[in-house]
C-alpha cells in the first residue's frame, strides 16, 4: 500500500476539523478542534512511512467516530424538533421507525447494513474498538 | 469547573459503548450463544484495557458499580476474611466518606481502626504510619489523590512500608487513575479502587484491583451466581464496562497531553486570582498536588454566598457527598484550617475539556464577586483599619 501523500494528510486534517466544528456542545467542539490541531502539529515532522500510515489510519478511525456522533445527534435533534412542532401529537410511527433505523445503520459499522433484519450473528472477525 | 464531582463522557467512549446498547445486548455470562460470546469478548477486552492502565494482570480486575462499592469490598472484604487473626485497620482522616463509613461499620463489628492525622500540607507523616502498624493490622487504606484538596499522598513509600511489614495496602485511586501514572507493582499496591465517571467514562461502573501474587483474599460482599471470580456476583453491565475500558485506554493515550494542559490552566487560574486578590489561601501542599483540583479559601468571604454569586459556573465548596450538610469540610478541618477559612473555601476543577476562556471567565467573576462581598463585610472593614480580629471580644446582647 502506498504511503499517504502530503495532500491526502492535509485533506484528512481539513475533513476532521470540518466535522469537529459540527459538535453542538461547546466543550466537545473546542476539545476536538484543539486536539486535532495539536496532534497534527506534533506529528508534522514524522518521516517514517510506516509510522505515517499508522497515524493516518488512527486519524481516519477518529474521523469515523466523530461522523457517527454527528449522525446520531442529528437524528436525536430531528426527533426533538418534530416533537416540538407537533407537541400535542406524537410523531407519526413511520418517522420514528425511519430515524431509529438510520441510527441502527450508522452504528452497525462492523457489518454491511443489509443484515439488519437478520439477527443470527455468525461472523467472527476480530475487531478492535477503535 | 466541578470535574472532581463528575466528568462528561468522552466522545470516543460513547462511540465504543453504543453498539452494546443497541445491537450487541447479550449477557456476557450466557455461554450458549453468540450474543453471550460477543458480550463476554467485549468485557474481557475492557478488562485488559483497565489492567494495562495500572500495570496489572486482567485477572486481577473485578468490575463493580463504582469506587464506593470497590472501597467497601476492599475494606470490609479484607478485614472480615482475616478477622480470626487480625483485628486492626489503619486509614487517614482525609479519606472519602465511603472509606470512613466502612471503617465505622467495622468498628461496630468489633474491629479497631486508627485514623491517622495529616500534616498541614495534607500529607500523612510516614513515621506515624510506621508507628501505628501493629502485629494484628490487616489493612492500610490511603487515597492516592484527595478529591477535595487535590493532595497526592506518597503512595510508593507507603507501599514500601506496608510490604515490609506484611500489611495489605489499599488505595482509593478514583481521582488519580488515568491522570497520573500508576503502577501497582512499582508502588506495591495490593488493592485499588477505580471509578468510571471520574475519568470521562460512564456513571454506575467502577473496578477494583485485587492482587494475585501474593494472593489477597477477600470475603465477598454480594452473594449470587459467582460472577467475577465469586468476588462480585451480578451480571456485568457490558456497555458500562466497555465504556470504562475505553475511558482507560483514552486516558492512557492522553495522559501526558492532558496533564501538561491542565497544569498550565491551573497555573493561570491561581496566578490570576492571587495577583488581584489579597488574603487568598491555597489548601494543600502546592508541590505534591494534582493540578486539576484547586481548593482556595477567600478570607472574609462566606463560601456559600460566593458560590451563589458565581451561579453560572459549576463549582463546589468541598466534595459533592458533603455538600448537603452545613458543616465545613472535615478534610479542611483535618489539615488544620481555621473554622472561618474553612467556610470560605471553593474547589475549582480543571479537566480535559476545560477551555482557557472558561478559566478566564471564572477568574474574572470570582475576583469581581469577592471584591463586592468584601466591600459589604464589616470584618473586612475592621481588617483594613488594622484591627486584629483575634483580639476582639465579642459581647453578648
From TrEMBL, chain A:
Q: Which GO terms describe its cellular component?
A: L-cysteine desulfurase complex; mitochondrion
| UniProt organism field | Papio anubis (Olive baboon)
Q: Where is the Complex 1 LYR protein domain?
A: 7-65
Give the protein name, as stated in the record.
Complex 1 LYR protein domain-containing protein
Per the record, the GO terms for biological process are: iron-sulfur cluster assembly
- Protein family membership: Belongs to the complex I LYR family.
| Alphabetized Pfam families for the sequence | Complex1_LYR
Automatic annotation (TrEMBL), chain B:
**Cofactor(s) demanded:** pyridoxal 5'-phosphate
Recall the GO molecular function terms of this protein's record: cysteine desulfurase activity; iron-sulfur cluster binding; metal ion binding; pyridoxal phosphate binding
Q: Could you tell me the EC number(s) of this protein?
A: 2.8.1.7
Transmembrane domains' residue ranges: none
Q: Which GO terms describe its biological process?
A: [2Fe-2S] cluster assembly; [4Fe-4S] cluster assembly; Mo-molybdopterin cofactor biosynthetic process
Q: Which reaction does it catalyse?
A: L-cysteinyl-[cysteine desulfurase] + L-cysteine = S-sulfanyl-L-cysteinyl-[cysteine desulfurase] + L-alanine
Enzyme class, first EC level, given as a word: transferase
The organism's superkingdom is given as: Eukaryota
**Pfam families, per database record:** Aminotran_5
A Gene Ontology term for the protein's cellular component: nucleus
Domain named Aminotransferase class V is located at: 2-361
User: Which UniProt keywords are listed?
Assistant: Iron, Iron-sulfur, Metal-binding, Molybdenum cofactor biosynthesis, Pyridoxal phosphate, Transferase
Q: Quote the function comment for this protein.
A: May catalyze the desulfuration of L-cysteine to L-alanine as component of the cysteine desulfurase complex (NFS1:LYRM4), leading to the formation of a cysteine persulfide intermediate. Acts as a sulfur donor for MOCS3 by transferring the sulfur of the cysteine persulfide intermediate on MOCS3.
Report the family membership: Belongs to the class-V pyridoxal-phosphate-dependent aminotransferase family. NifS/IscS subfamily.
What quaternary arrangement does the UniProt entry report? Monomer. Homodimer. Oligomer. Interacts with ISCU. Component of the cysteine desulfurase complex composed of NFS1 and LYRM4; this complex contributes to the activation of cysteine desulfurase activity. Interacts with MOCS3. Homodimer. Component of the mitochondrial core iron-sulfur cluster (ISC) complex composed of NFS1, LYRM4, NDUFAB1, ISCU, FXN, and FDX2; this complex is a heterohexamer containing two copies of each monomer. Component of cyteine desulfurase complex composed of NFS1, LYRM4 and NDUFAB1; this complex contributes to the activation of cysteine desulfurase activity and NFS1 stabilization. Interacts (homodimer form) with ISCU (D-state); each monomer interacts with the C-terminal regions of each NFS1 monomer. Interacts with HSPA9. Interacts (via homodimer form) with FDX2.
- Name of this protein: Cysteine desulfurase
Which gene is this protein's source? Answer: NFS1
Amino acid at each position: 500500500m502506498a504511503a499517504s501523500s502530503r495532500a491526502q494528510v492535509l485533506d484528512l486534517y481539513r475533513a476532521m476539523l470540518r466535522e469537529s466544528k459540527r459538535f453542538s456542545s461547546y466543550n466537545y467542539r473546542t476539545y476536538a478542534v484543539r486536539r486535532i490541531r495539536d496532534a497534527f502539529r506534533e506529528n508534522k515532522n514524522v518521516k517514517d512511512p510506516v509510522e505515517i500510515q499508522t497515524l493516518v489510519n488512527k486519524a481516519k478511525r477518529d474521523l469515523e467516530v466523530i461522523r457517527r456522533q454527528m449522525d446520531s445527534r442529528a437524528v436525536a435533534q430531528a426527533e426533538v424538533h418534530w416533537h416540538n412542532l407537533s407537541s400535542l401529537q406524537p410523531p407519526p410511527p413511520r418517522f420514528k421507525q425511519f430515524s431509529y433505523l438510520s441510527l441502527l445503520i450508522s452504528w452497525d459499522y462492523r457489518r454491511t447494513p443489509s443484515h439488519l433484519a437478520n439477527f443470527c450473528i455468525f461472523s467472527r472477525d476480530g475487531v478492535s474498538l477503535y | 469547573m466541578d470535574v472532581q464531582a463528575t466528568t462528561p463522557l468522552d466522545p470516543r467512549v460513547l462511540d465504543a459503548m453504543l453498539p452494546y446498547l443497541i445491537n450487541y445486548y447479550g449477557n456476557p455470562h450466557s455461554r450458549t450463544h453468540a450474543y453471550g460470546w460477543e458480550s463476554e469478548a467485549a468485557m474481557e477486552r475492557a478488562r485488559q484495557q483497565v489492567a494495562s492502565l495500572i500495570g496489572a494482570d486482567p485477572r486481577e480486575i473485578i468490575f463493580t458499580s463504582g469506587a464506593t462499592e470497590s472501597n467497601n469490598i476492599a475494606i470490609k472484604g479484607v478485614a472480615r476474611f482475616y478477622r480470626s487473626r487480625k483485628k486492626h485497620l489503619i486509614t487517614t482522616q482525609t479519606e472519602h466518606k465511603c472509606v470512613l463509613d466502612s471503617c465505622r461499620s467495622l468498628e461496630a463489628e468489633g474491629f479497631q481502626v486508627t485514623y491517622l492525622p495529616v500534616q498541614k500540607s495534607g500529607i500523612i507523616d510516614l513515621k506515624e504510619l510506621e508507628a501505628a502498624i501493629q502485629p494484628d493490622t490487616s489493612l492500610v487504606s490511603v487515597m492516592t489523590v484527595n478529591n477535595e484538596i487535590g493532595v497526592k499522598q506518597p503512595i510508593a513509600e507507603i507501599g514500601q512500608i506496608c510490604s515490609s511489614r506484611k500489611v495489605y495496602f489499599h488505595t482509593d485511586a478514583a481521582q488519580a487513575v488515568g491522570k497520573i501514572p500508576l503502577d501497582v507493582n512499582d508502588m506495591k499496591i495490593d488493592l485499588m479502587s477505580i471509578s468510571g465517571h471520574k475519568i470521562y467514562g460512564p456513571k454506575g461502573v467502577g473496578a477494583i484491583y485485587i492482587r494475585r501474587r501474593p494472593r489477597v483474599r477477600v470475603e465477598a460482599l454480594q452473594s449470587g451466581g459467582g460472577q467475577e471470580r465469586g468476588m462480585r456476583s451480578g451480571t456485568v453491565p457490558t456497555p458500562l464496562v466497555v465504556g470504562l475500558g475505553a475511558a482507560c485506554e483514552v486516558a492512557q493515550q492522553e495522559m501526558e497531553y492532558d496533564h501538561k494542559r491542565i497544569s498550565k490552566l491551573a497555573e493561570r487560574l491561581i496566578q490570576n486570582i492571587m495577583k488581584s486578590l489579597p488574603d487568598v489561601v491555597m489548601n494543600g501542599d502546592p508541590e505534591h498536588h494534582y493540578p486539576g483540583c484547586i481548593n482556595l479559601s477567600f478570607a472574609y468571604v462566606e463560601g456559600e454566598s460566593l458560590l451563589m454569586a458565581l451561579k453560572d459556573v459549576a463549582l463546589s465548596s468541598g466534595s459533592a457527598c458533603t455538600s448537603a450538610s452545613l458543616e465545613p469540610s472535615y478534610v479542611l478541618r483535618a489539615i488544620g484550617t481555621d473554622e472561618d477559612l474553612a467556610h470560605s473555601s471553593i474547589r475549582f476543577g480543571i479537566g480535559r475539556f476545560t477551555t482557557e476562556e472558561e478559566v478566564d471567565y471564572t477568574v474574572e467573576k470570582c475576583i469581581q464577586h469577592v471584591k463586592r462581598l468584601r466591600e459589604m463585610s464589616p470584618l473586612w472593614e475592621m481588617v483594613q483599619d488594622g484591627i486584629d480580629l483575634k483580639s476582639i471580644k465579642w459581647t453578648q446582647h
